[in-house]
């Protein structure tokens, strides 16, 4: 008698606690640090054009650059500098780094659903909706749609306090630079 082999599905990874504030600080650490670095490079290359550009257009250009850089980080390392600082990885369903197409799709969805395209009130609404969904369902809409898993490692109190401080400092630098 031939025995039929039935393959059992792989056990799901244990559900991790959601950490929306940790993810928020990581995202804005990445965005603000890159916005400032790109602005500094622009100033070094062509100071006059930087002074003449419309603030809204500059903000849009910096956000598009951030989306592109975020996707590259996620593709090559499975994390970004802010996520690395707070010990967060975003991986494919099989636990590996996501392919390039998925990394770029995730970055666009984060820009749209998580950051409200960077447009004032839309950004605030997107952050609130994302926070509530993550707390209620344990996963963001973009990560669920793309079949991704977010892994939070342990972080010490120093990193937990340092990152928001740096974000506020970077925001202060950015705002001061616009005055």
UniProtKB/TrEMBL annotation:
Transmembrane segments: 28-45, 57-76, 110-131, 151-176
Boundaries of every RDD domain copy: 19-131
GO cellular component: membrane
Statement: the UniProt record of this protein carries the keyword Transmembrane helix: yes
Cross-referenced InterPro entries: RDD
Record carries keyword Ribonucleoprotein: no
Compartments where located: Membrane
Membrane topology: Multi-pass membrane protein
Keyword set, alphabetical order: Membrane, Transmembrane, Transmembrane helix
Name recorded for this polypeptide: RDD family protein
């Amino acid at each position: 008698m031939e025995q039929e082999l039935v393959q059992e599905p792989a056990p799901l990874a244990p559900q991790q606690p959601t950490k929306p504030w940790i993810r928020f600080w990581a995202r804005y650490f990445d965005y603000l640090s890159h916005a400032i670095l790109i602005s500094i490079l622009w100033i070094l290359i062509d100071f006059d054009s930087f002074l003449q550009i419309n603030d809204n257009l500059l903000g849009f250009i910096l956000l598009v650059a951030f989306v592109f850089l975020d996707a590259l980080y996620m593709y090559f390392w499975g994390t970004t500098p802010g996520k690395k600082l707070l010990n967060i990885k975003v991986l494919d369903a099989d636990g590996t780094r996501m392919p390039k197409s998925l990394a770029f799709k995730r970055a666009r969805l984060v820009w749209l659903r998580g950051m409200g395209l960077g447009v004032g009130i839309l950004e605030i609404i997107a952050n609130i909706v994302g926070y509530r969904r993550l707390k209620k369902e344990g996963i963001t809409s973009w990560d669920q749609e793309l079949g991704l898993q977010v892994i939070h490692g342990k972080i010490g109190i120093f990193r937990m306090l340092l990152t928001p401080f740096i974000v506020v400092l970077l925001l202060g630098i950015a705002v001061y630079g616009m005055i």
